[in-house]
Every structure is written in structure tokens, then in C-alpha cells.
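Q: Fold this one first, please.
A: Sequence and structure below.
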Amino acid sequence: MSAEATSPGVHGRRRGLPRIDLRRLGRAALLGPASRDRLPDAIGHVADAHRAHFPDADLSVLRRAYVLAEASHRGQYRKSGEPYITHPLAVTLILAELGAETTTLTAAILHDTVEDTDVTLDQVGREFGKEVRYLVDGVTKLEKVDYGAAAEPETFRKMLVATGNDVRVMSIKLADRLHNMRTLGVMRPEKQERIAKVTRDVLVPLAERLGVQAIKSELEDLVFAILCREDAARTRALISENASAGDALSATADALGRVLREAGISAEVLVRPRHLVSVHRSRLKRGELRGTDFGRLLVLVSEDADCYGVLGELHTCFTPVISEFKDFVAAPKFNLYQSLHTAVVGPDGAVVEVLIRTHQMHKVAEAGVVALGNPYASAPGANESTEGEGEGAADPTRPGWLSRLLEWQQSAPDPDTFWTTLRADLAQDRELTVFRAEGGMLGLPAGATCVDAAYAQHGEAAHRCLGARVNGRLVALGTVLKDGDTVQILLAHDTSSGPSPEWLEHARTPAARIAITGWLAAHPDAAALPDAAPRPPAVLSAGPRGPVGVVSDLPDAPVRLAGCCTPVPPDEITAFQVRGGTVTVHRTECPAVRRMTLKRTPVPVSWSAGDTADCHVTLRAESFGRPRLMADLTEAMSTAGAAIISATVEPPIRQRVRHTYTVQLPDAALLPGLMRAMRDVPGVYDVSRAQQPAEA
């Protein structure tokens, strides 16, 4: 099914394909089932389309499904006056044309039986198996009697959860919505607009993410015709006025075909008209349109390597527009799409866009996950009794958006929150992949920041996030990530730490926004601290003041603590006698000890038994720059019982700030608590004892 070769004048139907006569199908449906040895006439179109993709398919199950659906819906009519059975038949035909396998078609025929007739899910399961039962259940709406105004969002939630285990659920829903949109003209204008808006906000993005471009493009045209009637009419008139636009493209296609034949490359070159919305967007972007702007050239080859062969010949024999080149073969889109995009200057000087792909790529580009058949059939341990209902079934598309959606919807129990957040999430139409420093990947929407990566990786533990490293460099949490970045999230040790309200400005994913909003709602006092998360005050008792005692083997020599490493009890210490006879005491791991050992003899020293009072220590804090950081640090140190003797703050480098503090503690035993209190200050990711060069 072609996504862009549509006739704008007929709601986006493809040129060259005869419209199915739904009234004739309805009359055939009313005649009842055919004899046992052949299919009912009413599903002959479905059988033909299915056999085109699966020549050896067993159609007996489709016959049985049709018999049940026709008998169940007999006597029911659509608002158009057609027998209701015409709707499930049309939905099934759409999927059959896209290449859906037999199980999906069976469920499509039955998709409204449980919702609108007396048929039960158990009956469907007994007759057609657990897979079909699961698919039918997934697309069955929830009753308004039970859910009221929340019925629609909760139905979509149920459907998306089911899609998480089997993407074929959403394939049936998309085909169902497409046929309903094709026949929406019998509805009241206000109801048309309501359905069209939901289709635009939810179903079109879902079709894009599942790669079903054929359905997505036609849905876009149908929505456009309802919500933007004047623009749609203007665009249709523009297409009609340029009915001969394809001639310019055909000339370039013929020239390209000759070039490829001479190069020995077997390829099919087609003119691919743009669909209604695509022409409208081109007009807004480029202003006045030329003939070649109403379509593209599509080149289909057999092998991946031939794609690049065609590209080479194209760029050699025509003038390429380099800025228009995109390689989605080597780097597929998140929705399975693969193709080479380029543009060249044609013989008449007009720019022609060209798509190059294999036949298989083209099938997937048009049908997306529908073209995968049963994507779970080859999964380890998969069988008829478990397929479609398995826990944690692998996402057959590029991992990311579906898993994220399933996770955050669990944190949005309120239907309004879910519905609003779903629309916002689906509005993010591009994906990127980042790599975790610890190994593994994260799928995120384009524009995601380190805040989003933190919550995607750690969940609610990301409340303790202090900062991040991107590609080995320290960055602020608001840093926007790029495809292929390596991200390491830095977390505080204090489990009571929480996010700042400012994080909401950087959060792009629903999971991050819902988690942050929930934490702030549970901790209303946090809103009063715009630059810092709340932290419990560290109340530590102060001991008696006095000099720290060091016992030396040179009792008459004066003793001092080295300023380079500021040792305190119970540090392991080493001492050396320096100029003037003073014994200088260092921490054993101090860098100065190794140098001094080469030319001086260590002096045996030890701490006085039980004496840990009144010590000086130098601490170094590494942090990300932010307002009020120094004020918060000094407040935390004062609360911990430390008196600041001196402080230095180095100029920030790449948003990284280094603070050095020399403090006096009433008791050396308070040092670990002081360092913990400093680490708990939001923005501080490391606190260490200073080790500076010392004179020998």
C-alpha cells in the first residue's frame, strides 16, 4: 500500500487501485456463508490480497471467522446504512493489503464481535486460540457505563499495555480507525472534528512510531480535510492545476533509468506523487511550488549494496544537493524505516528528491510492524499457547518509546493526566539512543536531557541525582543529549535527597516529569528552595576544645600538622623532622610522604590515647555551578559544627567548580559527619581531604 501516492480528491485513496464497493460487500454478507468447500464471496477480496503476500496460507480459519462475525453482526447496520459486517471486512482488507499474517486477519474480522455482539472472549479463545483472543481483547473498548468520561483514555491505556506484549493489537486499531475515518462523512460535523483531533494527536503518531506509513499518510490526509477544510481545498486545487507535474519527474526518471542500465544495476524507477499533507507542507516551506515538488522518485533494488551503487551513479551523473542527503540504511529510524534520501538537479534545472531502498525496505517502510508478520513467532520458547500473552515480549521496533510509555503510564493513575501526557509524549516524533557508562543503552526522545536519562535509568532513585558526565565530561543536568552520547549519572548517597523544582524545566519525558511532580507534591517545602533540594540538618555534638595530641619519639621537638593533608585522628600518620627541628606530621597516603622518604628518615609518631579534640582539616568540594551553592555549603558546614578558617573558590571550568575549605572542628570524630553533610548539598558530587604539594 503506497503511503504517498494518493489522490487528494478522494480522501487519500491510492491512484490506480479500485475502491472496494462496500455496498456490494454488504449485500454479499447478507447472503450468509458459502458452502464448505469455498470461501464466502464477501471475503474474496481479502483472500486475494492475503494470497498475494502468503501464497500458501490456509484460509480455512478466515472462513470460520467470517461465518462467526457475519452471524453475530447480522441485523446490525452502520450509520451509512450499510450492513455492519462491511466494517470488519474493510479493516481486514486494509491489513491484508499491507501483508498481515493470518492470525492478525482472523482477529481483525472478529475485532468488534465481543464489543458489539453476544460473542464472548472465551468463545473466541475456544474457537481460534489464545493469540486471537488476546488480540481481540486488546482492541475491545471499555464500556462508558463503567468508566464514564474516562472510558476513552482508559481504553487507550488498555490497548497500549496490550500492544506492549503484541504490537499486532495496535495494527488492528490503526486499520479500524482508518476505515472509520474514510466513512466519517455520515457523522455530525462536531463529532467528525472530535474524532479527527484524537486521530491527529494519538493515532497518527502511533502509526508513525510503528512504521505504518501507508496508514499514517492516509490518516493525515483525512484529518487535514476535516480540521483544515480551507487549506485542504486550496491544496487540492493546487494539485489539480499542476496535473501535468508528473511529466518533469517522468523525464528525470527515464534519464536515471538509462544511467542505471548502462551501469549494469537492475533497478525499478517509479514516480511517487506526494500525498495531500505533504504537498501542503512543501508549499508552506518553499512558497511557490514547481512541477517536481509534487512528487519524488523512488528507486527499488534487490540488495543493500545496490542502494549505494545507485547513489554513486546518481551523484556522478547528476548534480547532487548535498544538504538533502540522509542515510537511513546504515542508521535506521527508530520505527524500522530504512532508505537513502538525496536530491539532484534534473535536466531542466529543477531539484528532484530521490528515495533509494530495497524491495524489502520498501515493504517495511510502507507497512512497518505489519510487514513483520508475527514478530514473536521465532522468539525463544514461543508457542501457540503463549504467543501474544507473554510477559516482557521483546519490542520488535527499535527499543525505547514503547517501553518508556508502558513504564510512565503506571505512574499516571489519573485518566486526565494519562491522556494529556500521552499526547505530549507522542508529539515527540524523533528518537535518539544514548549509551550508559556502565553498559547498555537508553532510548530517549529527541531533545531529552540528563534529567530524562537519570529517570530512565534509575527510576525514583534519580531523585538523588547530583550531576552527570557526558562522553567523560562533567555537565549540567539540563544538558541536551545527542544520539550516540555516553552518559554516566552521579547520585548522592543520602536517600532523602530530592529534585529541585527547576528540574521540571529540563525534563522532556513523561516519566521524569511525573516522578518529579510527584516528589514535589509530597514535599511541598521543596518549592521554597529553588536552587536546592531539602536535606535534614546534621546536628552533631561538640567535644572539648584543645590541641590535638601527637606523641613523638623526639619529645623536645615541636610538632605541627602538615597543611598539605591536614591529618586528624584516627588517620594513619607518618612524621619527618624538617628545617628548624620541627616534626611535621602527614597522613600516610599524602603524596609528600613518598618524596620525603627518599632523603629523610621517618620519625615514629602516634596519636595520644583518647585525645581527638580541636583539629584543623582542609576539605575540597567538587560541584556543579549554580546560584546559592556556596551559601548552602557554608550553612551545612556550620550546622555540622565546623568553624571555617579560610575558603577559596576556583573559577568554574565547564560548569565545574572546586571549593577548598580549611575548618576547625571541636572534635575530630565529627569529620565523617561533616563530609557527609557537604556531599548532601545539591550540586556537590564529591568531597575529599585536600592533598596539596608540601615543601621538603
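Q: Good. Now the second chain.
A: Here it is, same layout.
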Amino acid sequence: MSADNAVDAVSSGGGRSRLLLRGADFRRLGRAALLGPGSGRGRVTDAIEHVTKVHRAQHPGADIDILRRAYVLAESSHRGQMRKSGEPYITHPLAVTLILAELGAETTTLTASLLHDTVEDTDVTLDQVGEEFGEEVRYLVDGVTKLEKVDYGAAAEPETFRKMLVATGNDVRVMSIKLADRLHNMRTLGVMRPEKQARIAKVTRDVLIPLAERLGVQALKTELEDLVFAILHPEEYDRTRESIIEHAALPDPLAVVAEDVRAVLREAGIAAEVLVRPRHFVSVHRVRAKRGGMRPGSCDFGRILVLVGEDADCYAVLGELHTCFTPVIAEFKDFIAAPKFNLYQSLHTAIADGKGGIAEVLVRTRQMHRVAEAGVVALGNPYAASVAASPESAASGERVDPTQPGWLSRLLDWQRETPDSDAFWHTLRDELAQDREITVFSADGGTVGLPDGATCVDAAYALHGEAAHACVGSRVNGRLAPLGTALRDGDTLQLLMADGDSGDPHGYGPSPDWLEHARTPAARIAITRWLDAHPGAAHAEDEPAAPAVRTAAAVTSRSADPVAETDPPGAGVRLARCCTPVPPDAVTGFAIRGGTVAVHRSECPTAARMTAAGRAHVSVRWRHDTAASGYRATLLAEALGRPRLLADLTEVIATQGVGIVYAAVEPPQEHRVRHTYTVELPDAEALPALMRAMRAVPGVYDVYRAHRQVAAASPSGV
């Protein structure tokens, strides 16, 4: 099925009605354009008059003269050129301009859209465009002008998209014009060979549709999806079309639900417009796929749309719906309090229709609806100070520009680091294939937008660029987490950074494992570049882990065990090495060989196992002369690995007047290390101060008492 036929089927099959190109016959107007301009007002054809009428309906004070002048230049430049469909070429820029006018684009965008092919396909130059229409129009026309295949060969298409992305980074209206241009081309794609239709449809699917989604231009995105669906999946398209036609011949249960909703809102005194909004073809197909290929239910061919005046009215409507109908709570989503990254705001809910059907309901203000349909196009010029400061924008709480910072900033960052056209093209498609963005909060209160599935590694590079090489750990929602942890929308992230030069191959830097955790191109490119510059660091990761490091630094002579008493007294007492109890710890005892009583801390896992095995407890207590020296304790220090950490910890311990009997360092894992120290305390009261001092060492995030057997014993048997 051709794209043209597919469009006809969409408009006749009960799907979402097309908003665009309903008021003008471009075949007739194109023929009229070939006759050339006349004199005075008659020099402007009916075609541009229709565009100006649509534009004035949404922008009453717009300067129409500049559109007429742009049309005259475009018509005279393209005169004699024909499209492959046989129509005069001027019909294409007229159609693109009308698409944007219907969406509410401002005058500068429409002027550039009329001229968008003049520099590419005629003798008009960018300088001429700039002199006649100003630098803004010149920039927009340049942004959508394709690069010559003669100059770039097979790289022309990816490099053209790179050029458009860079231009969009400075003015998002460039991509708006490109999307409207592609929509009209897709509508008239039926004249192309089937293989060319498929190639263009695949690029549209992989690149243009995701960009339309990110820019919030749902009116263009949904029609592009249907046109691509018809070309790439004709059998599924035909099956979906048949379902829509069958449904259209039957009474629509959503119409009944909509009337019930109107009655409820009238009774509640809420002024609202209630509409039944048919699903487009791809949406119906997705419902079928969700149901395992079964035909969608009678309520699945559309949704109820409720339009109100103010944000507060949205929640009032929601309250009435959930009070007067049976809500499906699992379907409720609030995109007003938490807008999507592409400007979309709405309340989503679902209610039972009383006959076994579930009706989905969208509730939004009329302004939200305009933005939901047109996205960034509805913003007008998002860079004009008057727009940014407009009371309407401030009152609605809408973000002025959804592209900075966020997904577009990421694309612009990594494209600079990807000079190879093939690598750029494949990476662009991979990046755009991730169709959802999450927002992560940093510890300082800022936010960063990341693609769904991004990890702490991705967040580190998004926040710090190449300085993220020095990242050695992370906390997610206050808890330590591996750098490979996948982040969720709304998570709070604290990145733990090492001091020193991350460029030193003997210091900090990313490991090859980070590549497995990186989901964003920016992170992968930065990590790969660092590993290529430090090949020794990559090889070091492949070596077997070194055994635990042991030191006998500051080993003191062992004095007698501090004395605990048994009840009845007289038995020998030995403090257990697995938990190293120290007064005033709660303790318990167990008889061991030779009649000696082993004293354990009450929470010691070894004591719990002995109790579970049926071993009898022996009552023990600390002697009153607990100030005596000789208490030993085993402490574990969890830290972020760094040079001189062991030296700093042992120095702090010695400064506290505490002797180290045994120390061990376990091999690092993801830059985290654990040190084990058995220390001899001058008195029991020294332990809390020692633990506080160890926690104050840079890189140490926790110090705690041992609760399990130390992996390796010291030579002295401690």
C-alpha cells in the first residue's frame, strides 16, 4: 500500500482525523502558481492566502507581508520544477508551511519553511535570504539545507542530520521545519519505488519519529508512525485497518461513557469539553499486541479527552470521575505535577463503564492540549525574551525550552567526539531508540535528565564530563550502590569522587567494566578514550586479584586478657577473637576445652550458632576494674580505595594511642576496599573515640565492630 493510500485509509477508517491540509487543494493551487505573479494584491495566489488565513487565526497580530514576500521568492525560484508526483514543486513548501501554521508556528518559522528548499534546489543563496528576510530566517533555512551528495558521498545523509542537530541546538525551530518537511514527503511517498519507500520509512522510524517525540510534536509523530506502519508492515496495517472499520460500523460505547462524564461534570458545576479521541493506527496495533494478538475491546479504539480551563479544574474533574465511577487505580498517572521531559502535561486515569469495558480518560487544560499536540512548535520562538517572560508561560508552569539541558545537550556533546560518519549514524539511532527519559536529582539539589536504563556511570559523565574518571563510588537515595546500578525516575544520586589526578594511570580512572554499565554514548566515548590512552590500566584489570595485604605495623606486646568474671567465679576466661568484646558490651559465655569460658558479645553470630546447637550459656560479667589496659577489639573500615589510605588509617590509630595487633586489606571491588584491624586499647573508653577518628579519614564511609571470624589470623594467633 502506498503512503498516499495509507493516509486516505487513516482519514476514512475511523482513526484520528487529520488536522492538517484540509482547507486547500494543492494540486489546483500548484497549477495556478505556474501562471506566475500578477500585479498588486493579485500577485499572491490563493495558496498563500489560505496559509495566511490559518496563521492569522492563531496569531492575529502577525506580519503577513513577510509571508507573501517569501512565497513570491519561493514560487519564482521553483517555477518550472516538478515533483515526482507531477505536481509543481511549489506545492511542497506550501504544504510544509500549512502543516506548521496549523500547529501554531510563529511567522519566522513559516517564512523559513516557505524558503526551506530554495538554497538547496535553486539559484537563491543564503546571503540573499539573509538580506531579504533577516539572520533568523537565514539560519533556519541553512539548518534544514541538505549537504551535497557530490561532496559527501555515502556520508551525506548522516552528516546532514549531524548538521541539523547542531543547528537545532541553537534554534529548535530547525527540527520543527524538518519534521513537517518529512511528513509531507511521507504523505506523497507512493510515487517512489518500493525499496526507496522502505529506506525513507526506516530512517523516519529510527530518527525522525523519536525526535518528534522528544520535541513533543505529537500531531506529527502519530501521523508519521501510521505512514511508516503502512509501508514497513502492510499486513499488520491492513489487519488493524479492518478492525477500525468494523468498529466504526458499530455503536461506540465510548460515546455513552462520554455522555455520562458530561452529565457528572455538569452536575458538579465544572465547565469542561468532553470528546472521544480515536486512537491512531499504531496505537490500536499496540493494544492488539498487548492483548497477545487478540482483537481490541470495544473501548480500546479511543480515549475520552476532557478539556478544562485551569490546572485546578483538572484535579476537580479527576475527583468527580473517581467518585462517580469505578476507577482503575493502576492506570492513574499525574503528568501535570511531574511533566514529561517533552513538555507533555495531562492526567491519565481509567474508569469502568459498567458493562465490563475500561475507558481511558485524559484530563488537561486547553493550553496543555495545544502543547501536547504541537510541542515546541507551540512555544513560538522559545529564545525570544518576550516569550520566555510571558505571563502565560509563567502561569502555566511550562518549561520554555525542553531541549536544554537534556537529551539534545547529550547528543551535541557526544557528536563532537564522533567524527566518523558511520559511528555517528549508528550511535544516533541507538540513542534515539531509548524512548523514555528519567530525571535524577543530584545531592546538591540539581537535576539531570538521562535515558531510561541509565546507570550511575552515565550520570557521572552527564554531570561531570571527563572529570567523572575520578568517580569511585555512589550513593543512591542515601545508600551505597555499585556504579553499575540502574537509576529510576526520581532517584537522588550522590557521586563519591576521588582526590588527585584522574589522568594518572596509577591513580584513578575508569575500568573496562564501566563500558558494560554505560548506556549513553557520551559515557561510552569518554571511557573508551581514557582506556585507549591508558592501555596499562585495562590490562591491570585482567590480572588475578592480589591476596589480602597484611601488616604488623605498630604491633604491641600482648598483655594479659582483660578480666571478665564467671558466675560462679574461678573459671578461666578468654575473650573471643571473632567479636572481640570490650566493656561495656553485653556478653555471654560458653565453656570450651580445658574448662575455659569463651566470652562473646551477645549479638555475635558465633554465639547465636552455639546457642542453636544446644550449647549451654555460662553467665559472665565484666570486672569492676575495667580501666585496666589490654582490651582488644576488631574493627572493619569500609572505604573508597585511594593511595595512602592504609598509611592514613594506621597513622590515625597510632595518634589515638592505640596499638595495632593485626591489619588486613581485602582486594578492592569497584574501587571499594575493606580494612580489618585488631587493636589493643589503652582502656575501654578509647574505642568510641578511635572509631570517630577513623571515620574522619578521607574516603572512609563506615567503621564498625566485627561480628564474624576474621578471614586470616595474625601470626600470634590473635
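Q: Anything worth noting on the second one?
A: The chain has a mean pLDDT of 78.
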